[in-house]
Design goal:
By secondary structure, the protein is α+β, with helices and mostly antiparallel strands. It is 32% helix and 25% strand. A hairpin with a 7-residue loop joins strand 13 and strand 14.
Length: 350
Amino acid sequence: MPPRYREIEVRGRPRQLGRELGEAAREEIRAFAAIALERVNISMRVAPESAMAVAQSCIPYVEAYAPDLLAEMSGMAEGSGVPLERLMLLQTRNQLRPEGGCTAFSLNGQVTATQQRLIGQNWDNDPALDPFTVVLIRRPDGKPAMMDVTQAGLIAYIGVNDAGMGLCLNTLPAPSRNRGVPHYFMVRRIYESTSLQGAVRVVEQAERAIPANIVLSTPEGAADLEVTIDAVHVLTAAAEGWLTHTNHCLHPQLKHINREFPELIQSQPRKTRMDKLLGQLDRPVLLSGLKQALRDHEGYPYSICRHPNQHPGDGFWSSVFSIIAEPEAGRLHVSRGNPCTAPYETYELH
């Protein structure tokens, strides 16, 4: 497996941008669409007709929330030859079951060696998704350019925009429904934002289907959005200048949810460990120190750097990639595979 993900760059108005992407990543999009439901069904059973019904039911929600992004998806369908409904299934598959458990952080410039903000995470998920993963630069007309690490066919995922915004994404076990705006579209709207207030506003505007945790690096500093289907709760960095998040609620108004939903892949121990590791790093913090924290194996294989294990539901998950982003520089450092064995490769937006 090559160390770098394939890089794709597209630009233009929504439908044109989508068509270019569909043509450039046709093979990855087709292959991802072909196995998406099969991978969901590893740990649960969802009939194809039920899954497609959920996907189709979400199209009107997306059309009301982000008609330009639906036009981009229509262009992607034209370019790839994958029907729009099948592309929507890629956006809604985590409305069928929780998908992925991640360990994330966001640091303010006051604690970093470059005096610029840093944000990162390990993406713990199904390694079968690696062949469909690319580093994608979108340059939409009249909006900030963005670069994310994403499965081809998704409308947005983990990365940065050229307005200094950085974004990581974690599953958040909490009440959900299977119809509404898939959270990838809210993520994309955040990339069109230039501030924390703008990011909160575009998430609040969506009629949301499922909860999510969104770790941010913004011009105002590190922040975290614990997003439920009813509200958006904002956390900011404490006095030490950084925050961490895994896969359980931290906001005081949401902590009761943790008693109602089972913990996702050792979320609390991972957060405790990441807090300890960041607290022990020399100041100012270097990229090398953050990389070492993301390689940590305490509690192996249920560690921050996660490896396959015997858990009956998600034991096949591992740290498919690890990412550290420099939002102000428009730069990503990404390991293709577990960061304990795969090198971090650098990708530039500018």
